[in-house]
Design goal:
This protein has 170 residues and is of the alpha+beta class. It is built from four helices and five strands, in the order H-E-E-E-E-E-H-H-H. The protein has one domain: Peptide Deformylase, CATH 3.90.45.10. The relative contact order is 0.20. Bound molecules: zinc ion. Zinc ion binds next to helix 2.
Length: 170
């Protein structure tokens, strides 16, 4: 297993729509394992393929990282039902230094996806899981929290973006 480099805001792969995963070869299986490792090492609860530089519709999630049994991968996910609203703080591994950003999202979602074996499954999430599912699926569409943040929050994040620019990442 290997730790992968996490892409940062401004890198093209994070700002475009990713392509569906069409085969689940050994390369993809290795990628999934490496993405779990990278997510845990970065203390994240979700990581999408564009965050490791690959424009693929795939993300790993575990909102209870202390229990590795709860980890799962969503391949070619689709939100098929939405209910309610939540408004809470969210961070992103690809926007280090930006801290939590208050974002309005759907409170409960139902997602259809495929697992690493190619089996379709349905996951219903609320609260933190609902937020995480929406955050990761957003990444697959090239949308980041800064795109969803209200203007005041966007201004708060400006310095973090400025810092990434200075580091020459975009
Ligand atoms: Zn993110």
């Amino acid at each position: 297993m290997a730790l992968l480099r996490i892409t940062k805001y401004g890198e093209k792969v994070l700002h475009r729509k990713s392509k569906p995963v069409e085969d689940l070869s050994g390369d993809i299986q290795k990628l999934i394992k490496d993405m779990y490792e990278t997510m845990y090492a970065a203390n994240g609860i979700g990581l999408a393929a564009p965050q490791v530089g690959l424009p693929l519709r795939l993300a790993v999630i575990n909102v209870t990282p202390e229990n590795r049994k709860n980890q799962f991968v969503i391949i070619n996910p689709k939100i098929v039902e939405r209910h309610g609203r939540i408004d809470s703080e969210e961070g992103c591994l690809s926007l280090p230094g930006a801290g939590g950003v208050r974002i309005k999202r759907t409170g409960k979602v139902t997602v259809e996806a495929m697992n690493e074996k190619g089996m379709p499954f349905v996951i219903k999430g609320e609260g933190l899981l609902a937020r995480c599912l929406q955050h990761e699926i957003d990444h697959l569409d090239g949308t980041m929290i800064i795109n969803r943040a209200p203007l005041k929050q966007k201004l708060k994040m400006r310095w973090a973006v400025h810092k990434l620019k200075k580091e020459g990442l975009w």
